[in-house]
Every structure is written in C-alpha cells, then in structure tokens.
C-alpha cells in the first residue's frame, strides 16, 4: 500500500467581491471549497494546482475525514513519494463553481431570492473557473504556481491558466485533453443533457422545491458518459458478451448482458450523489471551451500568450479526447517555440486512463515533477 | 567512449545558440549537451517510451512521434538545424524524410552507418552480411532497413537539390577525411537546401 497524505478535511474560502462571469452575469457572495496537501515553502514557490474534471471535486488525495471516508480521486498520483510528491510540493485541489461538492453551485441559495439557484445558477466557463481559482491563490498568498495540472476538462483549465495568467504559471501539465470539443463530443454532452432535462422530475431545474431529483436522466447521462470513457477493447475484455444468468431470458427490458448491469450500476451510483444542474453546467463549460475562437480558430495565435513550459500527455485508446486533439495543442505550442514535451501513452483503458495507475504514464509525470523541483 | 566523442564531433557542427530539432533523439543526451554547452534550444522527436522518459528526466523537450508519420507538426524553416543521427537507415521513407528535414530546417545534419567501410566490404566479399560495432545486428533482425554508403548519400543529396556544406567520416570517435567511403564506419553530412 503506497503512502497517502492521510486524513484530510476541506477548507472554505468566502469571497464577497463579485465575480463577473464571461456570460455577463456575476456571482456575489460565493465560496470555494478546497483541500491542500504538503507544506507551502517560505518562498511560496512550490504550489501546484490540481484542476478537476466533470464529476470530481477538491478531494484529490488522502482519505476524507467525514464518512464514508472516500479516497481522493487522484490519490494514486498525489501523495508523499508519489509522482506529484507532497513532500516537495504544496498541492491544492479546488472545487469549481457550479459544482455540487461544496463550492457555490445550483444547490446553494441565491442571495437575491433566498431560494436555491437551481436552473438560475449562471452559466460558468473554464475561464470563469480559472478566475475564481486565481482569487483563491490570492487569498492563500500564492503569486505564482510551480505548476498547474489537470486531465480532460481539468487539462482545459490548466491550458487556460497559461493563457489567462501567463505570468503566474511556471509549468502546465495537460493530460488527455483537447483545445476544444469536437462536434461528436458536444453531441454526447447534448444527449446527456436532454436525458436530464426531459426527465419529468427535472421541473425546469427547480426540482429541489419538489423534493425529487431527475434520477432517470442522470442515470442515462452517466451511462452515455461512461461508454465514452472506456475503449472498445477494455469493454470487450472486461465484459465481452458475458451474460448475467446462465440462460437467455428473452426479455427486452431485463438485464441480459453484464455490460448492461455495469452501466446501470454506474448510473445508479452517480444519480445518488451528483446534481443534475451541475451536470448541465459542467458539460456546457466543456462545450464552450475554445481559446482559439477569438482568434478566428487559429490555436497557434491563441497560445502565443502562453509562457509556461508544458507537458502534454494523451492515451492511444482515448477516443473521447484522442491523441489527435492533444497534438493540436502541441503543434500550437511548437509554432510559438514554447517549451513542450509530449507523450502518447499506449494504454488500453481509453479516456479513463488518466485516472489510472499506468507505470509509463506515472513515471513520466514523476520525472517531469522531479525535474521541475530541482 | 567513442559514442560520446562521435556526439562531440557532431555537436561541433551545430552553431551556438541554434534552434535545433533532433529527429530520433534517443535519450536526449545530444540535446542536453547542445543546451548545456552550446546554448541551443529545441526539441527531440522520439518514438520509444523509455527514451522519451529519459528525455523528460534530462529536462529536454521531446515529442513522442513516429517519424514514419512525417513532420507535419513542424512548420517550414522553423529550425536553424535539424539533426538526424543514426536514424535515416531505420526509416522506410528515407528520401521523403530527407526532404522533410530540408523543409523544416535551414541546415540538416545526418549521420548513418557507412556500409562501404572496408570491413563491411570484406564481409560481403566473403559472402556474409557484416556484423560490426556500427552494424551490430544480424541480417534477419536489423532495424537498418536502408543500407547505404558515404558515396550513395552524396548522390541522394544532389538528386534532392541539397548543397553539402561539410562531409566526413567518423571512426572510433575520430574524424576521417581521407577516403571516408572506405575508412569510416559512420558517414556525416551537413547540408542546406539549395
């Protein structure tokens, strides 16, 4: 058993200075929930910000102090002696605005109405998240990050950091990410959103008042997501055509195949803890992210501002955020002569690989951080 | 030791402060040397996982890519020097690669095992494929799918309109300028697009 950062408790930072969002709306009186691991050094130069993806949170590493004492979502990567070594770095995990894990989101009361925001929570973008994260760093007295790291949507935040605050980031580690979503990717998100919005229990996003949750929609949304996070090969390996019972039941609605059982289980689990409005908001943030947009689609022009050194990593079997998309980021950095290393890890697991403990992947991240600290 | 001396000889061909691209950069030691001793900066391209990791450990920029897939990720003339050391002979599309090298860089530097080195000739005369320090493989397991000679490269360079700036042989870390096609185990060419 690898060492862990141990038992951790979240902290809360409250902000009263309104945050103006890209949509034009603004949030006043908001809070960010975060966790930290390791010690900030005297020069305040060893901070590493970890950005989370769709369904994760500030709880990156260690065991949560509160039941059910969940393990952090990137505990295999972050901890003492781990690739992102908390004996050297002060690691910060922050829950993004609009989420359902403590930072201000649709389940919180709207100060204007005294009722939960629900569907009225303003649309937030990757850029808004980065702005909020920057304010948290201000509050923590951290002027410049040694590194920002994230996978998938988290990688988009890491990339955005280098564009929004080029002077505040020394290194960016962008894993299994993309410079924007493809049409196919937006399409998956839209199917998930329609499943939620058309659930009769959704009530236009104000279901809290009705004491229900659009669980059916959330389940389907999660099932679709889950399919896209796995590679065809890994699904075949894990489930194949395996049946749940010895004999066929000749039923159109009962579970016949193990893959159905697995997806329903994942959907059920997810619908119990995830908020439907948050799912809509976060998938929308994914859809909107496109730093090249204001440069007529020219990503190289968009990344001209970046000053950080980059490590970009993709996984060969990831079809949701394919290596092709990571290479676009790499090319744009090369066009600008920026420092970048790029690795394409031949892992079988698809998009989920970024969360898993693949030795080639982890050695690479470890080597990158070791070099960065020396 | 002679490998390091070979590397030094080649590093000397790279002007100080150059932007360099090292195709098939291996563990990145040449790039690290060029960075530390000649104030160069740039990138390596490498396919092998272990070598990519070594590059990252050295703090050398590396792009993991199969050279057979081309250099479309690099723009025209984006480098002062493009190095292609001990790599050309492993590629199926040698000529296309050479043209790509000339496209992305102002100066190209290539090295490859000289098949016309006299011990190799002797081996072939005896009816056997050569197995030497520079060509350590058996015919059935060699990654060297393109075997060429010092003299052959001169012809290929001319055919592709490349102007040879410097050409010499290397053997045991020493520069061979006299009859390199016969006396050198490795051929080195520095050229620019004509």
**What sort of overall outline of chain A do the alpha carbons produce when their principal axes are compared?**
globular
Distance between the termini of chain B: 36 Å
**Percentage of residues assigned to helices of chain A:** 25-40%
Shape of chain B: globular
Mean pLDDT of chain A comes to 96
Rg of chain B, Cα atoms, Å: 16 Å
Proportion of residues in extended strands of chain A? 15-25%
Q: Pairing-aware structural class of the strands and helices of chain A?
A: alpha/beta
Q: Could you explain how this protein is built, in words?
A:
- The complex is a heterodimer of chains A (374) and B (194).
- Chain A is α/β, with parallel strands linked by helices and 374 residues long.
- Chain A has ten helices and 14 strands.
- An eight-stranded mixed sheet of chain A has the order 2-5-10-6-11-12-13-14, with helices on both faces. Chain A has a two-stranded parallel sheet with strand order 1-7.
- In chain A, β11, α2 (153-164) and β12 form a beta-alpha-beta unit.
- Chain A is globular and about 65 Å long.
- With 194 residues, chain B is an alpha/beta fold.
- Chain B contains seven helices and eight strands.
- In chain B, strands 3-2-1-4-5-8-6-7 form an eight-stranded mixed sheet, with helices on both faces.
- In chain B, β1, α2 and β2 form a beta-alpha-beta unit.
- Chain B is globular.
- Chains A and B meet through α9, β14 and α10 of A and α3 and β3 of B.
Provide a short characterization of the protein structure:
With 374 residues, chain A is α/β, with parallel strands linked by helices.
